[in-house]
Amino acid sequence: MSRTGSRQTDHLYQKIAADIAARISAGQYKPGQRIPSIRHFASVFRCNKLTVQKAFGLLRRQGIIENIVGSGSYVRYPHKIGSTGEIFDFKTDYIEVGFFPYRQVQAIYNDLFVKEKSGALAPVDVKGEPGLIRALSRLYHVPAESIIIISGAQQGLDLIAKLFAFKITDAILFEDPTYPGAISLFKARHFVAMDGQGPRLDQLDSKLHSRIQLFYSMPAVHNPTGQSYSPRVKEAISRRARKHDFYIIEDDYLSEFARQPLPRFIDLVPENTIYIKSLSQTTVAGLRLGFMVVPPKLYDKVLYAKFTSDIASNGLVQKFFARFIEKGYYQQHLAAIGKKITYRRKRLIRLIDSFDFLDCHGHSQQGYSLWISSKRKLDITNAPWRRGSEFSFDPNYRDYFRLSFMHLSDDHFEQGLDYLAKILRYLD
Amino acid sequence: MSRTGSRQTDHLYQKIAADIAARISAGQYKPGQRIPSIRHFASVFRCNKLTVQKAFGLLRRQGIIENIVGSGSYVRYPHKIGSTGEIFDFKTDYIEVGFFPYRQVQAIYNDLFVKEKSGALAPVDVKGEPGLIRALSRLYHVPAESIIIISGAQQGLDLIAKLFAFKITDAILFEDPTYPGAISLFKARHFVAMDGQGPRLDQLDSKLHSRIQLFYSMPAVHNPTGQSYSPRVKEAISRRARKHDFYIIEDDYLSEFARQPLPRFIDLVPENTIYIKSLSQTTVAGLRLGFMVVPPKLYDKVLYAKFTSDIASNGLVQKFFARFIEKGYYQQHLAAIGKKITYRRKRLIRLIDSFDFLDCHGHSQQGYSLWISSKRKLDITNAPWRRGSEFSFDPNYRDYFRLSFMHLSDDHFEQGLDYLAKILRYLD
Fold first, then answer.
1. Every domain range in chain B assigned CATH 3.40.640.10
2. A126-326 classified as CATH 3.40.570.10
3. Nearest CB neighbour to B155, from listed A113, A285, A310
4. B144 to each of A48, B40, B129, B137, how far by Cα in Å?
5. Do residues A382 and A427 make contact, with C-beta atoms less than 8 angstroms apart?
6. For chain B, which has fewer Cβ within 10 Å, the N-terminal or C-terminal residue?
7. Was domain B10-87 assigned CATH 1.10.10.10?
8. Any alpha helices (H) in B48-179, and if so which ranges?
9. What is the H or E stretch that residue B302 is in?
């Protein structure tokens, strides 16, 4: 039979699978990369979504792609782990969206339109919705008049980058390790190593020359180490901020899940602190909401930068979140998530402790990630975790990794534990 | 009676009014400035909102503050117009929020949570929600793979400012007059005068030196002039963009309300066009949504700038708007608004034409503003319109003004016409 003839008798889904496989071999989609959605291919091949789904199934069985639960289909690395064609995401440090009480969310949105009618869609001030500002001021114990609502913590960093635009690279100190998004935004170059207490003061002092204007810091539930600064170190840094007149960017990553609340920089040196709080990190990634607390000297400048960035953050979302706090739902959500974190951390630590080559540093970590060092090389390419090298240029962190454990549903967490155990046994 | 004694017998609302009046005399709130809300003062004075409302009423009767409908209370200029203590807002170029079909909006939000459950809150790709991208691609006839969803047109400009950060001031040409938000963001310095056909080509040519990389343009329903470029001028500029290799920033301000659709720069020279579309401008200011169409050469850079700015635009709002388009509601809304624009423009032109010292330039304007020149000095300080000097540094535009007429409800529009007539008679 001729090639053409055989092709014509092939099932459409097999042709589609072959086409996608060819694109992968040609390098259009690379190992570890997400391939477009079923919907996308259905439109490309002008066929039913079910047909593309069948093609994806075939590719999965052939070990060409794999499914990351809740994320999509990825080109599989040549090196295989497991046999289900699925991997579990311990990379993403957001909370699984299914834990967010969407029925309460739905009720609030509905209520907003009933009570406020078209006013629900009215524009808000650049600085944010007054109701949300009041609610956050009470909940987070920060002065309402210093709050600016932003579209997520990343925007807060971006506004600061705008304010200090010129030569910022040489004007800002970072912790080492630190948040990769800050490294790339600020093109970070100057680092202060962390120890068990926080940033090392001797290193901080040696780098505090006259050009330093900013210190980017995650003092409560640090990312990725999960540590919180000791009160002594926090006070020492506060004194230095006052003396050398630099600003501390206090990125409050996850203090809601810290074991005990400690005074923050915004409490100790409010004049020198730019406080940034992500509200997506404690709720769902899709919320895209956060706030800043800005000292009076910088307030107007930050507000202007916010205005030129996007006029104001979405008002409806702000109104929603104000009510979500007022009704106590946010606080209930934090409490429920806190319990899950405790349970899951215990399970994960038990697993990590069963491997002699791994160390998660005295169980003093907080938040929903674990920062783990390994005595063996972590030379697998399709690791489901984030590697140390993403958080630090220091080669000592090359065999560290961060496991974030709240982005999986309860079922997937259980399966994910088995999956992790399999990978770790392979490395052992 | 002693001063103290008399104070004690005063009513609380009178004390509050006196306190606010004292703040105004002391310059804490300046003429034309909005004073904080009733709610704010209620919390400051620890009293009932009704009490503050009474204080505001007293201040209004005393001619100290005035109410801008739908906006708040403002410190009144010493120079008074009218007697009601109210002025009407012909400044704001957004559509009155009450015209937006909030019941349909409510139904869609509700439906989203019913159908997608917690998935409604899932995060989206940096480039935007696929469903919205598809819907916009179809509706606006632009390639889906070039679309990036943004949080309003201002963010689009901001992303471009980031891309061309260094020396952008000398790399970008502007129309004269042009949008004030662009002037301040880009610190505009180089302008090309507009005539009835669009930017003057002789001026454009004389300014197209080697450093020019961008031309910021509003070719359809230009802000503030309400003109659209002639096809001949558009083609001439397209040729120059190709030849001199600069990018046209095509800010599509309100082409939905143009009398006839003309080929856009994105159609004529897609390789050299960065198209920006505000979706708030055609719906409600509070939507904070828009999109860009970016040529392949710049796409990844713009996407990265978007990521470092705010990760992604709010997913729920994007999902809402995708459905709003899919159900045809957006198109219905545009049609309904289009009719209102036609009616109101006619009424306003009739008013303007009744004054010999005013000219609105042959009725060729489109969109929901009127750009009017005056033979008399416009020396009133509390004008309800935007002055020519906000759109241009050219002294010839000093006695121009822009009347935006869609930010008022139907009732307020009628009252606003009388109010305008009163001011114009005063100037005549």
1. 103-327
2. no
3. A310
4. 20, 46, 11, 5
5. no
6. N
7. yes
8. 49-61, 102-116, 130-140, 153-163
9. helix B296-310
Per the CB < 8 Å rule, is B118 touching A124? no
* A94, A154, A286: residue with CB nearest B310: A154
Identify all chain B residues contacting A184, using CB atoms and an 8 Å cutoff. 308
Planar angle of CA B20, B23, B26, nearest 5 degrees? 155
Q: Which residues belong to CATH 3.90.1150.10 in chain B?
A: 331-427
Q: Which of B124, B309, B315 sits opposite A309 (nearest CB)?
A: B309
The reply to whether residue A103 touches residue B113, judged by beta carbons under 8 angstroms, is: yes
| Spatial distance between the Cα atoms of B342 and A1, rounded to a whole number of angstroms | 68
Please state the ipTM of this predicted complex: 0.78
Which tokens belong to B231? Answer: 């096809």
Q: Architecture of B331-427 per CATH?
A: Alpha-Beta Complex (3.90)
Of B328, B333, B284, B294, which Cα lies nearest the Cα of B149?
Answer: B294
Q: How far apart are CA B45 and CA B55, in angstroms?
A: 12
Determine the Cα–Cα distance for residues A22 and A269; give it in Å rounded to an integer: 59
* CATH code of the region A3-61: 1.10.10.10
Residue range(s) of every CATH 1.10.10.10 domain in chain A: 3-61
Cα dihedral B40→A282→A165→A390 (10° resolution): 170
Report the distance separating Cα B108 and Cα B239, nearest Å. Answer: 44
What is the reported pLDDT for B80?
A: 40
pLDDT digit string, tens, across residues B44-70: 888 888 899 999 998 888 878 887 766
A106–B98 CB contact, under 8 Å:
no
Q: Which residues in chain A are classed under CATH 3.40.640.10?
A: 126-326
B122 and A316 within 8 Å at the Cβ level: the answer is: no
pLDDT at B5 over 50: no
Q: Does A39 contact B130 at a Cβ distance shorter than 8 Å?
A: yes
Segment B257-274, tens digit of pLDDT? 998 888 999 999 999 999
Q: Tell me: the pLDDT tens digits for B191-239? A: 999 998 999 999 999 999 878 999 999 999 999 999 999 999 999 999 9
Residue B150's pLDDT is 98
Are B123 and A315 inside 8 Å of each other by CB?
no
Separation between Cα atoms, residue A31 and residue A25, nearest integer Å = 10
Q: Please determine, looking at this structure, whether the domain spanning B103-327 carries the CATH number 3.40.640.10.
A: yes
Chains A & B: contacts with CB separation below 8 Å? 153
Nearest to A317 among B185, B311, B317 (CB): B317
Which chain A residues are within 8 Å of B43, Cβ to Cβ? 134
